[in-house]
Specification:
Radius of gyration: 23 Å
Low-confidence stretches: none
Shape: globular
Strand order of the largest sheet: 1-8-7-4-5-6-2-3
Number of helices: 10
Mean pLDDT: 92
Oligomer: single chain
Distance between the termini: 50 Å
Number of strands: 8
Strand content: 15-25%
Structural class: alpha+beta
CATH class of the domain at 55-198: Alpha Beta
Length: about 260
């Protein structure tokens, strides 16, 4: 039976009721229906993004990198997909020169290991107007590892992020570059995981369960996953990993049996 949460916890807050385990589980199952609907809706939106029209980037943009001048094409690092986040770290931004914008910095702290994105033919890069010496100093202080370039022209203005942060997504076909998507404002809050980045790209997660246009690259889910320091050493799924995926319960039993024999 539910009890008065405020009297029970004495928090002063008008909080939800305290219930039994059975009542709590019933409420969770009811919410789970909505959670699954939300997940399916999110997947459907990602599928729509993969069908959005592309825009050819005709202007030659130039950036400064650690080794000098680079083009937008160079930012791909040879991969087919590129996500560029416009970060605010430059004179006039609160926190300069010790820090970047607080919001951008919070976002930087959320960026997952980029090896997993790279394994899906995708590069993440950051760009601002600070000099490379300042960017290198900031990255070292904050422990950030993403590629970070200096904008030298109208890139941010042309792509809607000269006044506010945002992620622009591009696709490379040979030496041609296309803009495929743009997300900013509260949309940026969810960015940082491998999945949130891949879901805004034109190729998506590239897994067989996804609703993608015909001919898009897709592999079996889970099997491409790897330790972030092992993609180059082992590009194909390890047999033990495949065993775990195909028969989790059986794999656990076999592991325990092997451990007993070893002991």
């Amino acid at each position: 039976m539910a009890t008065d949460q405020t009297d029970t916890l004495k928090t002063g807050m008008k909080t939800p009721p305290i219930v039994s385990q059975q009542e709590w589980e019933a409420a969770r199952q009811k919410m789970l229906v909505k959670e699954k609907a939300f997940t399916r809706s999110r997947d459907a939106r990602a599928a729509e993004r993969r069908r959005m029209p592309w825009m050819l980037v005709e202007k030659a943009y130039e950036f400064e990198g650690l080794n000098g001048k680079v083009s937008l094409l160079d930012l791909f690092e040879g991969r087919r997909q590129l996500i560029v986040y416009r970060a605010f770290f430059e004179p006039g931004v609160f926190g300069w020169p010790e820090h970047a914008c607080r919001g951008c910095s919070l976002g930087a702290d959320q960026v997952s290991n980029l090896a997993h994105l790279n394994a899906r033919d995708t590069t993440l890069a950051w760009a601002s107007r600070a000099a490379q010496t300042d960017i290198a100093r900031l990255k070292a202080r904050m422990g950030w590892a993403m590629p970070w370039y200096t904008m030298t022209d109208s890139f941010d203005k042309d792509f809607g992020c000269d006044q506010w942060h945002g992620h622009n997504v591009f696709f490379r076909d040979g030496d041609k570059v296309y803009r495929t998507y743009f997300i900013n404002s509260r949309g940026d809050e969810a960015m940082g995981t491998t999945w949130s980045y891949l879901d805004i790209t034109p190729l998506g997660r590239q897994e067989t369960w996804e609703d993608s246009p015909e001919g898009y690259p897709q592999t079996a889910p889970y099997k491409w996953w790897n330790w972030h320091d092992n993609y180059e050493a082992e590009s194909t799924p390890h047999p033990l990993w495949v065993d775990i995926l195909s028969d989790p319960e059986g794999a656990a039993i076999r592991r325990r049996e092997a451990e007993k024999k070893a002991s």
